[in-house]
Prior knowledge:
Blueprint (H helix, E strand, L loop, with lengths): L1 H27 L5 H24 L8 H19 L10 H24 L2 H23 L6 H25 L5 H22 L6
Amino acid sequence: MEQTVRVFIYIHAFLGGIGLIAGIASIIVKKGDKTHKKLGKLFTISILLSTLISTPICMLPNHKNLFLFLIGLFTMYLLITGNRALRFKKRLPNRFDYSVSTIMLILSGFMLSRGVFFSEILYMFFGAIGLFLTLRDFRFYKKLKHKKHLWLLAHIGKMSGALIASFTAFLVAGAGINGNIIWIAPSIVGTFFIIYWSKKVSPKKAN
Length: 207
């Protein structure tokens, strides 16, 4: 059993590496062209499969880690909503979109509550981020009908968030660097990147 788990861990790491490379490359190439789209799909598929493999492993004996399990679900939420945002260029959110955000809202509330109760910084940090993102989802769903450009902002924010999560996983698991600052720093730095691109693609206000 343990040997089988190890094989899946190696597959998880391999797919995560492919996804991370594809994600970084998608930032470098021209946004919106065929190469960007192909790299984005490769990033999504690789990281999603990698996460689908690692998340259940986090609940197995000798590998139990509730925090990593929740971070895996958080990453899947970012990937799903980031890709679903592309649909909103022509369509409005449906029950599936509301369901995904609602589930993440509940999980984020649990993370934040646990973090406060047990004084666990990482639970508090990611729980707070999750609450912020999901509550913003619901506001976004309501505004989308009148502000069509918001789909692009949502796509950039969520996909960048998924890339940040992948990079963080590489530092912690791949490079073997650990500590609260390693978990938190990429999210803080990545936030400035998201803000920069969000402002760049936002419609300019008339004077």
